[in-house]
Write a structure and sequence with these properties.
Length: about 240
């Protein structure tokens, strides 16, 4: 449910942060070919001693790599030091519908070879997803999108669930006003930080969430979400921030 985001970490800071995240207990790591840090993520995983099958690893294909999906994925797997990733996403939609279908069909074939466990998309609209379903007969497992209290959209979430797609949220904190009185009041009542309230709000909605911190204290706090919960009323008050 709680993934460790690795953008925009590169080089030594990326290795250090992913190592610290694994030591802190994260078992879900989010990277992308575009981030230029797959080798550091791979080294941190190897150095950690955590077994590969305990970690849920996501990487993403740049749309500009359409037509080269297999070779790009093999390069990612070599950098990551693994034989498969758990989730492979199209990082954002290629501009033309025909190209979106072509990439998706290519990914379906690659999944059948066992190089990836699940395939999905990122930053797609439901209309773009419906076009893939109509063409291939298969929905993406996941749509990873920018999600936070201000962006809460019950209909969009329900649309994913109706299609059997997991909506996964990224950048939960960066554009969130952590000083917002609703969030601050709930944080104070629960004895946790505003960031923890925002992340727990994702958990209450059963939305897997990807947050990044290079700071060991915040990294640990962002994972420490299971010693408290939000009431239905608190969740509804945070949902309500979307309209304001
Ligand atoms: P984010 O995780 O919402 O925010 C990161 C920022 O928040 C950093 O400046 C971090 O600073 C700070 N922060 C972290 N924990 C905090 C806390 N407890 N209290 C206060 N500030 C805190 O945004 P993001 O990095 O854009 O997104 C997370 C991940 O999502 C990325 O790393 C990437 O893996 C993924 N992503 C995917 C896409 C896509 O198109 N699919 C796009 C963007 C991001 P410190 O590091 O100093 O703590």
């Amino acid at each position: 449910m709680i993934g460790f985001g690795t953008w925009p970490l590169r080089g030594h800071p990326a290795h250090a942060a992913v190592s610290a995240a694994l030591a802190a207990g994260y078992r879900h790591i989010d990277t992308a070919t575009m981030y230029g840090n797959e080798a550091e993520v791979g080294r941190a995983l190897a150095d950690s001693g955590v077994s590969r099958d305990e970690v849920f690893l996501t990487t993403k294909l740049r749309p500009s790599d359409a037509g080269h999906e297999r070779s790009i994925l093999r390069k990612s797997l070599r950098s990551l030091g693994t034989e498969y990733v758990d989730l492979w996403l199209v990082h954002w939609p290629p501009p033309r519908p025909q190209l979106r279908r072509q990439v998706w069909n290519e990914m379906l074939g690659i999944r059948a070879e066992g190089l990836v466990r699940e395939i999905g998309v990122s930053n797609y609209t439901l209309g773009q997803i419906d076009d893939l379903i109509a063409d291939s007969g298969e929905a993406p497992a996941v749509n990873q999108i920018h999600w936070n209290p201000q962006r809460y959209d019950a209909q969009f979430l329900a649309g994913h669930r109706a299609r059997g797609i997991v909506l996964e949220g990224y950048s939960p904190l960066k554009d969130t006003d952590l000083a917002d009185p609703v969030i601050a009041q709930i944080a104070s009542a629960s004895g946790v930080s505003p960031a923890q309230v925002v992340l727990r709000w994702h958990v209450e909605h059963e939305i897997p969430v990807i947050a990044k911190s290079a700071n060991p204290g915040r990294m640990a706090a962002n994972l420490d979400l299971f010693g408290f919960s939000l009431t239905a009323d608190q969740v509804a008050r945070i949902d309500g921030l979307a309209a304001s």
